[in-house]
Specification:
Layout (H helix, E strand, L loop, with lengths): L10 E2 L2 E2 L3 H12 L2 H14 L5 H13 L2 H8 L1 H4 L19 H10 L5 H8 L3 H10 L9 E2 L1 H8 L3 H9 L7 E5 H10 L6 H12 L4 E2 L1 H8 L3 H10 L4 E3 L2 E2 H11 L10 H11 L4 H4 L14 E3 L5 E3 L2 H8 L23
Antiparallel strand pairs: 1-2, 3-7, 4-5, 4-6, 8-9
Length: 344
């Protein structure tokens, strides 16, 4: 078997001609979330070393926005073997046909935005959007995004920093409403200082079974200002319903506040990926290329017995709470001085 043509052998008008096999690798990765997409790009770079990571990310964006995606899906063996089911001739109400512009928008938002929001933007029903995605062999589930723990680990920032970004509206999360559970827990803490009428109002609201409240509604129930609600979200006293960050929200966050990242703390491969994919400024351009003495501990990564790797002083907090690290048994009774007693 001959070698697959490289970029120099496979050029058209000075541009690299992407093989269907490489496109399929990127499509499968993009469909299964950020981690899988990152792995797919690594595989492509191993197969074609002449390509850059930026070339791969641009190709992923091109496939999501172009009409090549459905064509590749139809050409895939697993998809080609499936014959379309025959639908009985039942009279259905006339539906608005999907245009190329509609499909382009759908490919742009699918995997990044939930179906109700896509349906609202396109002026269609949720059922129509789900059916159209199914026709392209794509899932409607939003899997392309990040948990707060994942962002904390990748960007080397503290949970308090991420909560502050959420509280001031800089970092958009899937559902920023104040969770009913955290509001109820807070009310239990301040029950003694609350007016009976205010407590009755909160109890009635909780009895309705809502899973969360808007910041304005939470402020009204707790008898505080919206600014105070934001402060308590930042300090962790109140929690949001769903803190998942979509890839689109993270992209917007990087455009506006990527210069605030301390790039010297971030892993070199991830740092290059943030620069190429999300346009984050390089350390020399952003001015965040040095690490202060107080933050140098974050450069040290230690591995716990449970297998988890933790950066900085957070490792010692993790060890104290980790169940895999059993406390060492004492040898015998201990005096106040800390020395074991001698047997008489």
């Amino acid at each position: 078997m001959g070698m697959a043509p490289g970029p120099k052998d496979n050029k058209v008008n000075g541009k690299f001609r992407w093989l269907p096999e490489l496109d399929q690798l990127l499509i499968v990765g993009a469909k299964n979330g950020s981690a899988a997409k990152y792995e797919a790009v690594n595989k492509v770079l191993k197969l074609v070393p002449e390509l850059t990571r930026g070339d791969c990310w641009r190709r992923v964006r091109h496939l999501r926005r172009s009409s090549e995606l459905p064509a590749l899906r139809e050409g895939h063996p697993s998809q080609a073997s499936k014959k379309p089911k025959r639908i009985d001739s039942v009279r259905q109400p006339a539906s608005r046909p999907w245009t190329t512009a509609d499909d382009d928008k759908l490919m742009t938002w699918a995997g990044y935005e939930p179906v109700p929001k896509i349906a609202q933007r396109l002026g269609r029903s949720e059922r129509a959007v789900r059916f159209r995605l199914g026709a392209f062999g794509m899932s409607a589930k939003v899997t392309d995004g990040w948990s707060l723990r994942g962002l904390q680990k990748m960007l080397r920032v503290s949970p308090a920093t991420l909560r502050r970004f959420i509280a001031d509206g800089t970092l958009r999360v899937r559902d920023p409403r104040v969770s009913a559970e955290s509001a109820e827990a807070y009310c239990e803490q301040i029950r003694a200082s609350m007016e009976p009428s205010a407590m009755e109002k909160i109890t009635a609201a909780l009895a309705r079974g809502d899973d969360g409240y808007s910041w304005e509604r939470a402020a009204d129930l707790l008898g505080i200002t919206v600014a105070q609600v934001q402060t308590w979200i930042s300090t962790g006293q109140l929690k949001v319903v769903n803190s998942f960050v979509t890839d689109r929200a993270f992209q917007d966050f990087c455009k506006q506040h990527g210069h605030e990242f301390n790039m010297a703390l971030i892993d070199p491969a991830i740092r290059q990926w943030l620069v190429n994919e999300y346009g984050v400024l390089r350390p020399a351009e952003s001015g965040n290329g040095s690490v202060s003495r107080a933050k140098k501990h974050a450069l040290v990564i230690r591995a716990c017995k449970c297998g988890r790797k933790v950066a900085g002083n957070a490792y010692f907090r993790h060890v104290k709470a980790c169940q895999a690290v059993a406390p060492s048994p004492r040898r015998g009774p201990v005096q106040d001085s800390g020395r074991p007693l001698r047997a008489s």
